[in-house]
């Protein structure tokens, strides 16, 4: 009897182990192994050789070990990788180790933004394959991590009121490294892709080689501090407002929190839209100091925003409706859901 019981327990354990192995075996890759993340003595062939010996799957984790304040880790577009252009990274992390969960299939590119480091070979390009099985591997939330469903009940779609829907959603939230975004959407109708600020502003992801996540719900762990940008790559969806920009603060308590007030100028009250409330922001505060992540302020002479230089969070209004109409619609987000779906499904 006891022997039978032991056999049963043993077989159960074997089955459970096989199941774990098959479904979401998450591999941790120590970038460069013992060498770590530095300017490699032999040039960029070092990380190319390292990557060639690995198989990267969605859900795997890259661990970058480096001397703090001597290096950093930035994910960049393919163009930026090829030319070692460090001005506009997708994300950047300055703390070691930096653990990055590979959230999407396709090519991912990393480099160090310190002067000359990329040029001397501190750069890594990898190919990530989709996880086997129906569900992409989902990173488990770290203890204390928040899980945010983007748009809450609205989910991830072309919002009835335009981009203001996700601006409003993100506005009073504090995102910390390790938190998880859940994008809940209709498969084959929408997807989600992390992009650079330039791609976000232009609603043009054609320069990126990373594949969007196509299976809902998409769980994305916020792996690094700084600004993060997401969009749907279906035609027109981003320009009609299916885009999300957030600020992520470092996991440690010493990191400065983002200013909770006025992340972006918004109409004062969605319930009482006036024709002027949705117009481009007046230059009341004067031009702010430009930073690598901030586009130059718009010229005030041009009147309505020029299509070529959209503000960070104010895309050009859809051709079918004016800005005031968008603001009005934002006041009634859920009742227009059916209308929006009818247009975009
Ligand atoms: C680097 O990329 C930015 C946009 O991402 C671009 O404006 C700039 O001209 C590029 N710099 C070089 C030297 O190519
Ligand atoms: C990063 O990954 C390494 C190796 O798995 C682990 O030891 C370390 O605790 C992780 N750090 C964080 C901040 O998750
Ligand atoms: C990724 O795979 C594609 C197709 O096999 C190949 O063209 C590309 O060079 C690979 N990229 C990297 C960074 O290995
Ligand atoms: C954040 O916004 C939500 C929805 O607009 C609101 O219910 C909540 O009270 C706000 N929280 C804070 C701290 O302002
Ligand atoms: C995603 O949305 C569907 C329908 O809109 C809903 O039934 C489901 O509960 C949502 N899932 C999550 C994780 O929010
Ligand atoms: C998107 O960007 C690519 C490369 O910068 C450009 O060739 C293409 O015309 C752009 N597409 C649109 C719709 O602007
Ligand atoms: C992030 O925070 C910075 C500084 O507070 C701010 O200038 C920027 O607009 C914010 N970006 C987003 C996407 O909220």
TrEMBL record:
InterPro entries: BlueCu_1_BS (IPR028871), Cupredoxin (IPR008972), Phytocyanin-like (IPR039391), Phytocyanin_dom (IPR003245)
GO cellular component: plasma membrane
KW Signal (keyword) present: yes
Phytocyanin domain boundaries: 27-130, 146-250
GO MF term list: electron transfer activity; metal ion binding
Alphabetized Pfam families for the sequence: Cu_bind_like
Stretches for region Disordered: 251-326
Residue stretches of biased makeup (Pro residues): 257-298, 307-320
Signal peptide: 1-25
Transmembrane segments: 324-344
Keyword Protein transport: no
Keywords assigned: Copper, Disulfide bond, Glycoprotein, Membrane, Metal-binding, Signal, Transmembrane, Transmembrane helix
Stated name of the protein: Phytocyanin domain-containing protein
Organism: Salvia splendens (Scarlet sage)
């Amino acid at each position: 009897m006891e022997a039978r019981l032991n056999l049963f327990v043993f077989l159960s354990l074997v089955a459970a182990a096989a199941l774990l192995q098959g479904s979401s075996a998450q591999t941790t890759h120590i970038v460069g192994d013992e060498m770590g993340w530095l300017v490699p003595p032999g040039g960029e062939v070092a990380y190319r050789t390292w990557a060639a010996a690995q198989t990267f799957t969605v859900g795997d984790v890259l661990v970058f070990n480096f001397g703090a304040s001597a290096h950093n880790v930035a994910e960049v577009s393919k163009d930026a990788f090829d030319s070692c252009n460090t001005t506009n990274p997708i994300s950047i992390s300055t703390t070691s180790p930096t653990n990055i969960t590979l959230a999407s299939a396709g090519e991912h590119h990393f480099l160090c933004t310190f002067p000359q480091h990329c040029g001397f070979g501190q750069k890594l390009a990898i190919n990530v394959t989709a996880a086997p099985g129906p569900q992409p591997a989902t990173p488990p939330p770290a203890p204390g991590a928040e899980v945010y469903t983007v748009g809450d009940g609205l989910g991830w779609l072309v919002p009835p009121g335009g981009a203001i829907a996700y601006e409003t959603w993100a506005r009073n939230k504090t995102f910390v490294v390790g938190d998880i975004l859940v994008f809940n959407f209709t498969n084959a109708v929408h997807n989600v892709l992390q992009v650079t600020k330039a791609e976000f502003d232009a609603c043009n992801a054609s320069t990126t080689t990373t594949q969007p996540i196509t299976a809902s719900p998409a769980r994305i762990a916020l792996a690094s501090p700084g600004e993060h940008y997401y969009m749907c790559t279906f035609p027109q969806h981003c320009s009609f407002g299916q885009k999300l920009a957030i600020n992520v603060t470092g996991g440690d308590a010493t990191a400065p929190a983002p200013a909770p007030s006025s992340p972006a100028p918004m109409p004062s009250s969605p319930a009482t839209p006036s024709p002027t409330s949705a117009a481009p922001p007046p230059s009341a505060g004067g031009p702010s100091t430009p930073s690598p992540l901030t586009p130059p302020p718009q010229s005030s002479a041009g009147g309505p925003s020029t299509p070529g230089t959209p503000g960070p969070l104010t895309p050009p209004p859809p051709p079918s409706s004016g800005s005031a109409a968008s603001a009005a619609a934002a006041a009634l987000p859920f009742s227009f859901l059916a209308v929006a779906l009818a247009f975009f499904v």
